[in-house]
Amino acid sequence: MITDSLASTDLAELVRSAEAAFARTDTPADLENAKAQFLGKSGRVTELMKGMAQLSVDDKKTRGAAINQAKQAIEAALTARRQALADAELARQLKAQALDVTLPGRQRGTGGLHPVSLAWERIEQIFGSMGFDVGDGPEVENDWFNFTALNNPPNHPARSMQDTFYVDMQGEDGQPYCLRTHTSPMQIRYATAHARKHAAALAAGEIPEVRVIVPGRTYRVDNDATHSPMFHQVEGLWLGENVSFKDLKVTYLNFCKAFFETDDLILRFRPSYFPFTEPSAEIDIQFRTGPLAGKWLEVSGSGQVHPQVVRNMGLDPERFIGFAFGSGIDRLAMLRYGVNDLRQFFDGDIRFLSQFR
């Protein structure tokens, strides 16, 4: 409020008028409009200052001091109202954003392995119990390991079955590198390293077995309900002195029984063709009970390792004989978990994936 030292009651009334105008405002914008009425370029205080031009020097001092005191009182009222509006807005926001700390907290969901990862781990565990090593190799391969060393040279018609993605890099043979179409290149890599490691034993006439599986990502230009441009495969290789198709049948049948947790299934071979095995066969299984009972389901390609492939491993095909197989991990996971569309594995739908936790 204005004090009694003011020269006239008009200034006290001006201050009260300003305080009342400020008090009636509800928003910062309204307050700024009210401020302009009193402190703006054409405001009432400014007009009072302009009217002092006709006063004497002594009256100017007295009147000027009184007007300044009134102006300060108005500015103080303005500041107080600004703060009151700011406090009211903050209170409104706090109320709107208030947290009820008595409610239980939002917990993070429990994660889990992807169904393909579950199948992958299960495959490694089962074959590991049979004495198989687990190999791992590059996903970007050169032509030699991905095709030629597996008895699939350039311009071979079988290459059209494995159309893949090539990268802008060439090997020493002038052929481009590619995203591997299968994990079979590790047959050559692993067996070659095995031959170097056991060179002394081989020279002495011993035949140290090659027994390995290679799970991993592979790539082909393919995409539908049962195929994906990127998919997972497990390659199996067993070479020794006297490893036959009988061993392949027993090994794969025991694997399937352990993987699907049932003894109530049978296995059959269907003649087929692969450049890196001879003879070659598709492996089918049939469940005797359950939702898939009575249907033959293709689960793997297989065959006796081709002699030329054994030579490319640095081994003697007269001494080393055995089998190889290649199974789709995604396919096995689909059968185990009853999934009918491969694309569901890669859509990232938490509702679907959470079923496998």
In short:
With 357 residues, this protein is of the alpha+beta class.
Q: Which characteristics define this entry?
A:
alpha+beta, BirA Bifunctional Protein, domain 2, 2 domains, 41% helix, elongated
DSSP helix fraction: 40-55%
Q: Supply Rg.
A: 42 Å
Biggest sheet statistics: 7 strands, mixed
On the 0-100 scale, what is the average pLDDT? 89
Give the strand tally: 10
CATH topology of the largest domain: BirA Bifunctional Protein, domain 2
Total domain units: 2
Shape: elongated
Euclidean distance between termini CA atoms: 72 Å
The helix count comes to 12
State the strand order across the main sheet.
1-5-6-10-9-8-7
CATH homologous superfamily heading of the largest domain: Bira Bifunctional Protein, Domain 2
What does this structure look like?
There is one protein chain. By secondary structure, the protein is of the alpha+beta class. The protein folds into 2 domains: 9-96; 115-356, 2-Layer Sandwich (BirA Bifunctional Protein, domain 2). It is built from 12 helices and 10 strands. Strands 1-5-6-10-9-8-7 form a 7-stranded mixed beta sheet. A 3-stranded antiparallel beta sheet has the order 2-4-3. Helix 2 packs antiparallel against helix 4 (57-96). The protein is elongated and about 130 Å long. It starts with 8 loop residues before the first helix and ends with a helix. Residues 1-7 have low confidence and may be disordered.
